[in-house]
Each structure stands twice: as structure tokens, then as C-alpha cells.
Amino acid sequence: MTVNEKAQLWLDSDKVSAELKDEIKSASKEQLNDMFFKNLEFGTGGMRGLLGPGPNRMNIFTVTKVTVGFAKYLLNTYSDAKVRGVVLSHDNRINSRLFVLTASKVLNDFGINTYIFDSLRPTPELSFATRYVHAVGGIMVTASHNPKEYNGYKVYDDTGCQLVPEQIQPLLDIIANLGDELTLTYTPEAVRGEEKILSSEVDDAFMQKVHSVALNPADKKVIKIVFTPQHGTSSVLGRRLFKELGYEFYPVLSQCDPDPLFSHTLSPNPEKKEAYTEAIKLAKQVGADLILTTDPDADRCGLGYKMKDGEYRLLTGNETGALLIDYVLSNRHQRGLIKSNSVICDTIVTSTLGEKIAAHYGVGTRSFLTGFKYIGSAINKAEKTHEFTFEFGYEESYGYIFADFCRDKDSLESLLMIAEMTNHYALEGKDLGEKLEELYKAYGYHICKLYDIYFEGESGLKRMAQIMDSLRHDHLKEIAGVKVVKIEDYELLKTYSEDKETDLVGFPKSNVLKFFLEDGSWIAVRPSGTEPKCKFYYEAVDTKKEDAIDKPEKFHHAVLKLVGIE
């Protein structure tokens, strides 16, 4: 069936709203093709896409279809799925509440009880609540840090962890056999499931766990904090947290309302400097020492600190991660809490600085594919096998956890620990930049850069495939004049080193390539699992800052030239 034929089915259907039909009618040829040329897919962070009509968009039809699949999967997997039920939550985005209520109804139709909050709640609380009420699964409706035109849908198992590949494949197989989302029908159970509203008890229990990660709660509070939830889900709990901790803090009030249009922020993404514009203005007015921001679903956390000259410097996820690892492990080491099998968990695209710091304290590192679900899954297994003792988990994309009560990245824990760390060093007369410089001098300068290149539509998918094929089969010998000493191919699960080929074990297949260079630097390339873009990661390592700082850009220009992008 052609794109135009698929579009006509939507236009002819009495199920489709006039608003969605108008979008189809006004779409350009390229937009129409993107709406209908494929089905919206699950990636590293679940199903995420633009709002609108068609199988490649987020709408009540695609949400219904995937929820029918999830219901069938849960009934196949858990004998008590109907009674134990599913917890659902959502962020502030357009149609988020509608999608939760739609999904809840579908699950109830299959006889499965559901638990929903009375309003938006953070992703980490959804993870916690799934375990708290002993549910068999969870659903979080969110597009995380993406622009306002997006929404998304993430699924969790009974441990509060997003489904990993071996779990999600049976779900994908079920969804693939459901047929067209527009004509999908099912027969509701005679005894429907019950939809229950979760009480504030869950909020209180979650916040109690957040407080439990503190290392030096009795420290005198000497810093001022500016906080913004970017119109998202941490607005209530984030402000509550700072009040309970006793900090002098100032919320960016214009960004505290759950606005689906993100009217008062230039970007809801803590990775983007534009996200800090209003916070910096307020910080300068009140003389704040620290700026903290979370993304809309409150799993990521970014920061800026006041330098000696009064200006504010934003730290990357890798820089913040390194500081947190040193702060957490040094404190636990001093108290004799580090065990012989203690580990931190990171990803294959995270800076190696954290690994070096951990090793200094006798802590190992486990690296996983991109996607916090792999870290959460490893924590689940370790809880049963005692294979390792979890100390800290993080991704370069601003996500951190400090305990295992939550199986997804948690900005509430991060808000607490970053504020405590900043305050602790302030009591010693240091700012975060000075502490970071100490780490660089001890372990070498690690300069990391991430470049995103967008490839929209069907042609974009083909172009990204060409880029990966080119890099995969050319077996590069050097990049920007620096010798490539090893290549890891996570799609073929092979390692190439000195003309030798060995198996790459311990990872599921993923379309990622990583190049290790002779000078200790590395480069990784992967198509995004949730957005139409290819991500290029670079880490340059050197004992001298001036020698490391320009390397990532040089490497990037060299790689783009190699794949034919000027």
C-alpha cells in the first residue's frame, strides 16, 4: 500500500478527528511521507516521535496499538498480571494525560488493574512506584528532553526497569501481529480491571528514599541555589526537596507551571545552553552559587556554578559525573563502605575519567550500551546474584543514580547530591571548577564533545545507514593523523585490533561503532534510537589541557570528511 493510499484510509475513517485530518490535508509531500512510510518504532528509550496523524506519529491510535501489545505481553508473562496491575505516569506534554487515560482504559479492557497519579509525576517516581505497589509493569508517557512537538511512551517491567532487548522482543512480535492501528479491534474482558488513583503516600515514600542517599546531611547550608523544572514534572517535588533540605533556593517561577508549549524556556533540554537562560538571569539577581535544572520528565539533571568572576559555567554530563563519582566514592571510602566487589555503571559512550577515578578508590566499572535500562537490568541481576555491589550509575547524557531503589536515572537524587557536593566544597573554599581541575591534574584532561547531525524522513534513514556501512566496512587506519588501534563493532559483535578479529562479548547487538586511538582518545558513532539523527561522540585525553581541547573538533571534521559530509 502506498503512502497516499494509507493517508486516504485515515481521511476516510470516522475514527480520525477533524484536527488530524486537517493535518494530513495540509501536509507537504515530505511530511506526508514521513507520517505514513513506516511504523513508529521502539528505540533505546521506548517509542518516541512527533505528535500527529499516521503510524509514524504519536496519537491515540499508535498508543492504543502498543498498549494492546503490552497488555497481551503482560498476560503472557505474569500469571497474576490482572490483579497486580500496571502503574502509569506522564509529563507535561501535549496529549500526555490523554495518552495515559487511553492506555489505562485499554489495560482495564483486558482485565488488568491500573494505578495512575492525579497529575504529572517524574519518570524516576514511576520506576519507584511500580516496585512500591508490586505492579507487573509501568508506562511513562514522555518525550523526555525533546521539543514540544514530540511525545513518547516507555514501558517498564515489575522491577521498575525499562525492558531490555530479550524482554522487549516478545512484545515487538506481538505488536507486529496486531495489524493496522486504525482498524485494530479487540473484545474487552467481561470483568474489566479497575483504575485506581495513587495517593500522596507514594510521593512521601519516594521522597524518603531520595533523602536516604545523602552523605553529609548535617553540613551547614551556605550556598544559594536557583532551580528550574523546565515546565516539567519536578516542579512540585523539586521545590519540596530543597525546602526539606534547608537550602536558600529560588525557583524560576515562570518555568514552574506544567506548560506543554514550554512557553518560557528556549529549550527544555539540560544539555543545551539555552535551557539556562532564565535561570542565569535569576542567579545573577540573587547571587546564587549553583543553578540546577531538570528535563521535563525529571530523569536528567544539569548544572551551572558561579565562578570567581561572577559568571556561570555550565558543566557537561561527563564533568558532573566525574565530580559526583569522586565525591560519593571518597566519602564512602573514608567510612569503610566500599566493598571488594563494588562497581560503578556507565555506558560505552561515557568518559573514561569516571572509570579512572573509581579505580583509585578500589571500585570497578561496568560499561553498557546506551540506554539506562541496561544499567537498571544489571542492578536487578546483581540484587539476586550478588555479583557486584552497586555504588553509582550514570550516562554522559546527564542521568545519574546513587542507590538502587530506582531503576532509571533520577534527577531528584541528583538534585540532592549535586547541591550537597557543591555545598560541601564551598565549606572548604572551593567551587566545582576548582575541584574538577584537581581531578584533571590527577587523571589527565578528558575533553568530550557530542555532535548531532539530523537526517529527516525516509531518505535520512537511508543516509544514516550508508554512513554506518561506510565506517563499518572501511576499517579506518587513522583519524586526523592519529592511528586507530582498535575498533569495536556492536552490530557485528566483533573487535578488530592489529589485523586480528575477535568476538565482542557481553553486549546485545546495537548499531554502534567505537574507534580507539593511539593517544588514548576514542570516537563512537551511532544512529539515535529515538530521534532522526546520528550521534558522534569524541573524547580526547592528554596531560595538557591545551593539547586536548581542540582534538574533538579536529576528529569530527575528519570523520565527516571520511563519510562524505562537508
Automatic annotation (TrEMBL):
Alphabetized Pfam families for the sequence: PGM_PMM_I, PGM_PMM_II, PGM_PMM_III, PGM_PMM_IV
Gene Ontology process terms (BP): glucose metabolic process; purine ribonucleoside salvage
Cofactor entry: Mg(2+)
UniProtKB keywords: Carbohydrate metabolism, Glucose metabolism, Isomerase, Magnesium, Metal-binding, Phosphoprotein
EC class (word): isomerase
Reactions catalysed, as given in the entry: alpha-D-glucose 1-phosphate = alpha-D-glucose 6-phosphate
CDD domains listed in its UniProt record: PGM2
InterPro entries assigned to the protein according to its UniProt record, in alphabetical order: A-D-PHexomutase_a/b/a-I, A-D-PHexomutase_a/b/a-I/II/III, A-D-PHexomutase_a/b/a-II, A-D-PHexomutase_a/b/a-III, A-D-PHexomutase_C, A-D-PHexomutase_C_sf, A-D-PHexomutase_CS, Alpha-D-phosphohexomutase_SF
Entry EC no(s): 5.4.2.2
Pathway this chain belongs to: Lipid metabolism; Glycolipid metabolism; diglucosyl-diacylglycerol biosynthesis
The protein, known as: Phosphoglucomutase
Protein family (similarity comment): Belongs to the phosphohexose mutase family.
Keyword Protease: no
All residue ranges annotated as the Alpha-D-phosphohexomutase C-terminal domain in the record: 485-549
Keyword Isomerase appears in the UniProt entry: yes
Domain named Alpha-D-phosphohexomutase alpha/beta/alpha: residues: 41-177, 208-303, 317-443
